[in-house]
Design a protein that fits this description.
Largest sheet: 5 strands, mixed
Order of helices and strands: EHEHEHEEHEHEEHHEHHEE
Strand order of the largest sheet: 3-2-1-4-8
Radius of gyration: 19 Å
Distance between the termini: 60 Å
Helix content: 25-40%
Shape: globular
Number of helices: 9
Number of strands: 11
């Protein structure tokens, strides 16, 4: 089985470097490492040398401030499939795979399955920085998702819980799903949409033990007010396609802050004009 790893990059070059080190140290290394750069030409230079040489694919950012995550994942998948990939493994650039993660994804891959390994969120790095052998002890898998044992596979997963941080599927399954819907731009919605497409095509979500990734720390906000416009725009697109709103937890948090309002008559969320 020819395994391709696909990651998207726009900045966070230190995170990219540690991901590459993690891939190189694994019990199975990728046959093809596709690095999709979104208006980030420097990233293409960073992935040329060892320890894990990357194949850069440049994708433009048509709307300033809105990363085309859906289109970029599709571009990465096309490059990998054109090169003969049998299995596509998607990792966010923040994610460092465990030593056996790629091997576990490859051994459990099956047509008709969408595999999701566990994700642990790391605290800020210690003074000496992150070290690969120390990562498992720094954080436990996120409690918002199932945590199967290392030799377990949990079938029948809820597509509404799908995360695009770390997942894998065969080339045939990718073609069955049809890729990500490229109208999504910026933060949120495109991954849940993808999981719903997969479910509609008869693809089963499976939570996979023994395929951990460790999500490197970066500052964030809770709720993510910096992404409010993206969440409203992408959420409305999702509702048009699937009949309900995603990310409702964030929307309710925004409402409590007085940033958005919900119209129950039309089931629409909109930004509050704070200049009036």
């Amino acid at each position: 089985m020819r395994v391709a790893v696909i990651t998207l990059v726009s900045g966070r070059h230190d995170h990219l470097s540690l991901q590459r080190a993690g891939l190189a140290a694994g019990t199975r290394t990728p046959d093809h490492y596709v690095v999709v750069t979104m208006d980030d030409p420097r990233a293409a230079l960073l992935v040329a040398p060892e320890p894990c040489p990357g194949d850069p694919v440049a994708v433009p950012v048509p709307s300033p401030g809105r990363l085309p995550l859906a289109a970029a994942r599709n571009a990465g998948a096309r490059r990998a499939l054109d090169a003969g990939a049998d299995l596509l493994v998607f990792l966010d650039v923040d994610c460092v795979p465990g030593a056996g993660t790629l091997d576990r994804y490859a051994r459990c891959a099956a047509d008709g399955a969408l595999l999701c390994g566990t994700v642990s969120y790391l605290p800020p790095p210690p003074a000496h920085g992150y070290r690969l052998d120390e990562l498992p002890a720094l954080a436990s898998p996120h409690p918002a998702r199932p945590v199967p044992g290392d030799d377990e596979v949990l079938s029948g997963g809820d597509p509404l819980l799908f995360w695009s941080l770390s997942f894998a599927l065969t080339a045939a399954t990718w073609r069955t799903v049809g890729g990500f819907h490229e109208e999504y731009e910026g933060y949120g919605g495109e991954d849940t949409d993808f999981a719903m497409q997969a479910a509609g095509a008869g693809v089963e979500l499976r939570w996979l033990g023994g395929a951990p990734v460790h999500h490197q720390y970066h500052p964030t906000r809770t709720p993510p007010t910096q992404h409010l416009d993206d969440i409203l725009r992408n959420g409305a697109l999702y509702r048009r396609r699937w009949g309900n709103w995603p990310m409702e937890g964030w929307l309710r948090d925004f409402a409590r802050l007085g940033l958005v309002r919900h119209d129950p008559r039309t089931d629409t969320w909109s930004a509050v004009d704070r200049t009036a």
